[in-house]
Amino acid sequence: MADTELDNTASELYAVDPQDFVAARTAAVAAAKESGNRKLAASIGKFRKPTTVAWMVNLLVREEPDDIAELFDIGNSLRDAQRRSSAEKLKELSAARAQSIRALTRRAVEIAREHGHPSPENAAREVGQTLGAALAEPEIGARVQAGRAVTAESYSGFGPAVLTLAPEPENTPQESRAEPKAEPSDDAALKRFEEAREQLPEAQEDEVSAREAVDSADSAAEAASTDLSEIKERLARLRAELHDAEVDEAAARTAEKSADREARRLRRVLADAEARTAELRSTVEGLGR
């Protein structure tokens, strides 16, 4: 039951606009705690905020599950063809894979636009790279198929290369700028261009890692802030209860002292009455003889 609740919550959260993710996650954590399921609350609190590209992929998986399943079927067939060294089949399936990723990339851009998010620059390219990486690396594939991507993914170098060549999405107005070319006669500019192009993937990976670290830190800070607020509220309630208890204690102590004084007075009255009774009994007995 707990796993089902966690999966359902994850499906809901990762379909939420990234700008609203933290607030939605905080509300889900609070709801889980209110129901008494602190373990579920802790698990929900660990969900990382997705980037815009990851959100686009998650929505794509949510809205086009059949097409996503077909893409992964193509990936499985490619692996099988590679094991069999079937060049003709590899060529055919590679073309089908490229066509599928291009179509899914276009659809992801459309879905984002339908949800009020025009795609940011390079988003289409990163969606395509993420889908390609999902076919190559099982861990990435599992996140993508579950609709729980948290950042754009790229192939890290392990796995069948034929599965990882991300196709270039069809040009959009945002991506129509031609790749700058260095003048052949300018050796220094050409060298700088080549160096920059070689260093760009590493810089992009560093950027992704930094973004993930920031998202993780933001998530931890949000969770800590939520816990602190709850502890403060609980402390305020306990302080109020302590004050009320102290007031009740003072009243009870006063009542105890008053009752004790009254008991001592009544014991004196009782002693006087007993003495009077004894005296009168003695008188009665003496006169009656």
Low-confidence stretches: 158-162, 164-185
Q: Helix/strand/pairing class, anyone?
A: mainly alpha
Query: Biggest sheet: strands, sense, closure?
Result: none
Cα-based radius of gyration, to the nearest Å? 38 Å
State the distance separating the first and last CA atoms: 95 Å
What proportion of the residues is helical, as a percent range? over 70%
Q: Would you list the SSEs in sequence order as H and E? A: HHHHHHHHH
Number of strands: 0
What percent of residues are in strands? under 5%
In round numbers, the mean pLDDT is 80
Fold topology:
Elements: H1 2-13, H2 18-34, H3 38-45, H4 52-63, H5 65-83, H6 87-114, H7 123-136, H8 138-145, H9 187-287
Helix pairs in contact: 2-3, 4-6, 4-7, 5-6, 6-7, 7-8
Structure description:
This protein has 289 residues and is mainly α. It has helices at 2-13, 18-34, 38-45, 52-63, 65-83, 87-114, 123-136, 138-145, 187-287. Helix 4 packs across helix 7 and helix 7 crosses helix 8 (138-145). It starts with a helix and ends with a helix.
